[in-house]
Design a protein that fits this description.
This protein has 714 residues and is α/β, with parallel strands linked by helices. It is 39% helix and 18% strand. It has 25 helices and 22 strands. Strands 1, 2, 3, 4, 5, 6, 7, 8 and 9 form a nine-stranded mixed β-sheet that branches. The radius of gyration is 31 Å and the shape is globular. The structure holds adenosine-5'-diphosphate (ADP) and magnesium ion.
């Protein structure tokens, strides 16, 4: 029996009953589970810190010195004992919020104490809340570093503390089998990336000897986790592309060239050209393309989509463009039709509100091939929609579509069509490599020339007059205005502004202008009718919730005002802001907040005023909110499944891990060979060590596969 696989009940200090409890509460069944149950923080009792050394995020540490004075401050619930503590060179405060009087009498000035706690930044200095206080005894042996483990309430009640777990880990690390464990990473990878060997890493993760070794150990385990994740994703993508043949668009013909040479309404940006080349490369290979096209709002994805659709037409294939809402589909249709007509392409629109007669006509046109391009909503997915030869599907604003819906488009041709997924929500690099890691990614990182900048300003309720004047001025100049609210109706429990109350207020403020209103509780018909009023210019002000976020194009709109901006994520604010700045004139994005937002919120919103780069914003957003809150990870559950790596902060390790995984796959092509049609049987992994197969099974197969919707696969 392999050490890692040994049942936890055989570990010294466990036994049958405790083993059952560990399994039920923490999913710890064997030695591996225990050793991979990492501390969530560490405490350093190996030495005494100087107060002066405190900086950044600190572990729990100990400080030696004397109390200078004690004061009771505040009243009632805020009553607290503040001890001024000196380590002989600098001062800090120790603060207690309970047992104030007892503690004041218990602790003395002039005695040498050791304070143990977590230094926390407070008003420009550090303090310690509720430190552990003990009288200094020079004969006490140093205690060293220690890991602190999460335990459940049930375990705690049963008397199993984090210290108990720490003891178990110690027993496991000193049991005879541990000395002979084999590394779970391929040897060449450990060597090349200077990783700490597994045995050393496990010891240092649980009982580090110093900060540097702890750092190295964490790095190694993060690398391992991300390496196997990448191996899994890349292997999956390869197996898929090997299994699934794609249609070949062998030639660039008259449609593409004719349009490019004679009909192009503007010069393509360098980024658009590059992306088209990348797509063109895919189309020739005989493999099916699965490409994610990222480009900030306004970067010109539609033209790239259209020219890709022309490649299909040149090879006698039909293409479909799918958008999440009727309004968007209609807008796309109008744009594309104008271009298509110049070169004699037959393009049609199919949505839920297409009349029966026209619908039948379109259906038969798609079936006999006389309709070359189709733009539409979910209506395209219906079984009644059949194609003569569908070669390409373009999906706009992909996160609004479920994986199943996308997959359905696959079945509409005997060979699956190429898929181009377009998104305007920039995805941080690390997410692109993981959640979308099996897709090829293209980025349009350049905006068409001549864009007028959007001025973003941060204001609060006390600045209403100024803001209203700005709105009035823009309206008078013939412009249109968006106003976005976090709520539909007022809620007595929340001090937030709502669409309904806002509508009344705005109508009163600007009586001369028509106001329309859109929110999620309206039926689709009503919503579309209201939206249409704004698009046509009949209504000059649109009050709405974030339902307007996606894709709507009203070039005449010059102001985006967002109420309670503190309630929105940065990426969402960025999307909203992208609704303006589409016409020739100067535009404004006004972020309104409560008067007294905290420093963190101010900093967060400050990012919006500093940059309009969607990628910078999404990276910052992820650092602030954590990867679990990002669009995409939420659905996949990936961010929660990761044990030690953090997609917000471990981008560099991820990049290296991906490189290593690619290299391993290239030098072991047999890893991709799979049994039957399931690309996930583990038989292919034989060349790696037995332990790495186990790691793969445990770390990936069971944990990730259940939770991750890998891709477009049907
Ligand atoms: P998005 O990437 O947000 O979908 P669009 O495709 O809607 O952006 O393009 C935004 C606007 O920019 C459109 O009006 C489009 O016609 C215009 N546009 C796209 N590419 C260029 C270009 N290379 N030069 C000038 N204008 C362009
Ligand atoms: Mg678009």
């Amino acid at each position: 029996m392999n050490f890692f696989e040994s049942d936890i009940k055989y570990l010294k200090g466990v036994g049958e009953t405790r083993a059952r409890l560990l399994d039920a509460e923490l999913n710890i069944r064997n030695f591996r589970d225990l050793l991979y149950y990492f501390p969530f923080r560490h405490i350093d009792r190996s030495r005494f810190y100087n107060i002066r050394e405190f900086s950044g995020e600190m572990p729990h540490v100990q400080v030696k010195g004397r109390f200078i004075s004690f004061d009771i401050e505040g009243e009632g619930a805020r009553k607290r004992l503040v001890g001024l503590f000196s380590d002989g060179k600098s001062l800090m405060q120790a603060v207690w919020f309970s047992k104030v009087n007892t503690l004041k009498d218990a602790y003395k000035t002039g005695t040498d104490y050791v304070l143990f706690g977590k230094p926390t930044p407070y008003r420009g200095a550090y303090n310690m809340a509720h430190p552990e206080v003990s009288v200094y005894n020079p004969d006490d042996p140093p205690k060293g570093w220690q890991g602190v483990y999460n335990v459940t309430d049930k375990l705690r009640r049963a008397g199993y503390s984090p210290k108990y777990l720490s003891g178990l880990v110690k027993n496991a690390l000193s049991s005879p089998g541990f000395a002979s464990i084999r590394d779970t990473m391929p040897e060449e990878v450990v060597r090349e990336f200077h990783l700490m060997p597994l045995r050393e890493a496990l010891v240092n993760l649980h009982f580090p000897r110093n900060t540097e070794l702890l750092q190295k150990a964490r790095e190694r385990m993060k690398f391992e986790e991300l390496f196997y994740l990448q191996l899994h994703i890349l292997r999956y993508a390869r197996a898929r592309s090997r299994r699934i043949k794609g249609v070949i668009f062998g030639q660039i013909g008259d449609y593409f060239n004719g349009f490019y040479n004679r009909c192009l309404p503007f010069e393509l940006t360098g980024a658009q050209k590059r992306v088209l080349r990348e797509i063109r490369g895919d189309m020739r290979t005989g493999r099916q393309m699965n490409r994610l096209l990222q480009g900030d709002v306004g970067s010109g994805k539609t033209m790239v989509a259209f020219m890709t659709m022309l490649m299909a037409a040149d090879n006698s294939f039909q293409s479909a463009l799918m958008a999440p809402t009727e309004i968007l589909a209609t807008q796309h249709y109008e744009t594309l039709r104008e271009w298509a007509e110049r070169i004699g392409i037959n393009i049609r629109l199919l949505t839920g509100s297409t009349r029966a007669k026209e619908r039948r006509e379109i259906h038969s046109g798609l079936l006999d091939g006389s309709v070359h391009m189709i733009v539409g909503t979910h209506a395209l997915i219906e079984d009644t929609v059949q194609f003569k030869s569908l070669g390409l599907v373009v999906i706009d604003e992909q996160h609004r579509f479920g994986v199943a819906q996308r997959a359905k488009m696959w079945t509409k041709n005997s060979v699956p069509p190429h898929v181009l997924v377009m998104t305007a929500t920039p995805i941080p690099r690390t997410l692109a490599m993981t959640v979308y890691g099996d897709l090829d990614v293209s980025v349009i990182d350049e905006l068409p020339p001549g864009r007028k900048p959007i001025t973003t300003i941060l204001r609060h309720d006390d600045n209403r007059m100024e803001v209203n004047r700005l709105l009035g001025r823009e309206l008078q100049a013939g412009r249109q205005v968006y106003i976005v609210y976090p709520l539909i109706s007022d809620n007595p429990k929340l001090e937030l502004k709502s669409v309904e109350a806002g509508y009344e207020r705005v109508c009163g403020l600007f009586p001369g202008y028509k106001v329309c209103c859109v929110h999620g509780r309206m039926s689709a018909d009503v919503k579309d009718a209201q939206m249409q009023k704004f698009i046509s210019g009949e209504a000059r002000i649109l009050v709405a919730t974030t339902v307007i976020e996606v894709g709507v194009n009203v070039p005449n709109a010059s102001v985006m005002l967002i109420e309670n901006a503190e309630r929105f994520g940065l990426s969402q604010l960025h999307q909203l802001r992208g609704r303006v700045g589409r016409g020739a004139d100067k535009s404004y994005c006004i972020l309104m907040t409560r008067p007294n937002i905290g420093g963190d919120t101010r900093k967060r919103l400050g990012i919006m005023t500093e940059t309009t780069d969607g990628f910078l914003i999404s990276e910052a957003d992820m650092k602030l909110r954590g990867p679990g809150d990002m669009e995409g990870t939420q659905q996949s559950g990936l961010a929660f499944a990761l044990n030690i790596a953090n997609l917000a902060t471990d981008g560099q390790i991820l990049t290296y891990a991906r490189r290593a995984a690619l290299r391993v796959l290239n030098s072991h092509p047999e890893l991709v060979e799979t049994q039957g049609s399931d690309p996930d049987t583990s038989e292919g992994f034989l060349p790696l060590s037995a332990d790495s197969i186990n790691t793969l099974r445990l770390e990936l197969r069971y944990r990730f596969m259940k939770q991750v919707n890998w891709s477009l696969i049907s």
